[in-house]
User: Fold this.
Amino acid sequence: EVQLVESGGGLVQAGGSLRLSCAASGFTTDGYAIGWFRQAPGKEREGVSCISSSDGDTYSADSVKGRFTISSDNAKNTVSLQMNSLKPEDTAVYYCAARFKSPLVPLRSLWVPTYPEVGYWGQGTQVTVSS
Assistant:
């Protein structure tokens, strides 16, 4: 059974930090990009950040660049998202996702909600940033 299990969400004040983790199981992560989407109430889902298991290449949305850092532990099939300098607008449900990455598709194209391949998804974890 394919599973992506998120952990680390919670409530934090603006300017604070949280670390999200995603543990993948039930499939071979080779060739996949794994990372995070988020969805705030009343807003469309947004691709936040991802990392390629093949070469370690990363992508981050402009809205989080310089504040969020994604990393992976391939031996443990775990991807983490370190979120610093959090803002109230970062409040959302954060979903871990995994999508197979063709060498022809750049990560910024892969990590959009409308990409044809749905991939695998976790249940989501709530991040709330208070002002």
